[in-house]
Design a protein that fits this description.
- This protein has about 170 residues and is an all-alpha fold.
- About 70% of the residues lie in helices and about 0% in strands.
- The radius of gyration is 18 Å and the shape is globular.
């Protein structure tokens, strides 16, 4: 793909786009934003394929792809927030659950889901990335913008808290 092989790009897209779409939908319920982020991500991957360091740095193509997508999603949220009109101050606003919370409820139910939702957000984010999304410690660190040691510590704390909650 780094040499402009269109078939290689098409194969990467075929293999990763369903997975990436699911991950993005877990974080954003707006299909238009998800489609926009998908397009921007694959365009960026095509343009920057030659800069992928991959195995030399211990990373994976999927981790690299997710890092790009996550950053594009944050950019899309910022653009939406920048262009959104401020709400009327006097109108009461019901608090709606985040898209991630809704996806979590749909994905993990029962006692496990309840215990997971009671975790501190920073612990839940690490556990969700590593267990539900299947990322490595290194990939989770990149996606969440944390040092690897912090990811390991939070994962351990999250597992202990889950074990205690389910005991």
């Amino acid at each position: 793909m780094a040499r402009g092989d269109r078939a290689a790009f098409e194969e990467l897209y075929r293999r990763t786009s369903p997975w990436l779409a699911v991950r993005l939908r877990r974080r954003c319920a707006d299909e238009q934003i998800v489609a926009e982020v998908m397009q921007e991500t694959y365009l960026a991957v095509w343009r920057a394929a030659g800069s992928f360091a991959g195995s030399r740095t211990g990373g994976t193509a999927v981790g690299w792809l997710w890092t790009i997508a996550a950053r594009r999603l944050v950019d899309a949220f910022r653009r939406r927030a920048h262009h959104a009109e401020p709400p009327a101050a006097a109108a009461p606003h019901p608090v709606a659950p985040a898209a991630e919370e809704e996806a979590l409820v749909a994905t993990v139910g029962g006692d496990v889901g309840d215990a997971l939702r009671r975790l501190a957000p920073e612990l839940r984010d690490v556990l969700q990335s590593m267990v539900l999304d299947g990322l490595s410690v290194r990939e989770t660190a990149v996606v969440l913008g944390l040092p690897e040691g912090t990811v390991k510590t939070r994962a351990r704390r999250a597992r202990i808290a889950m074990r205690e909650a389910l005991a």
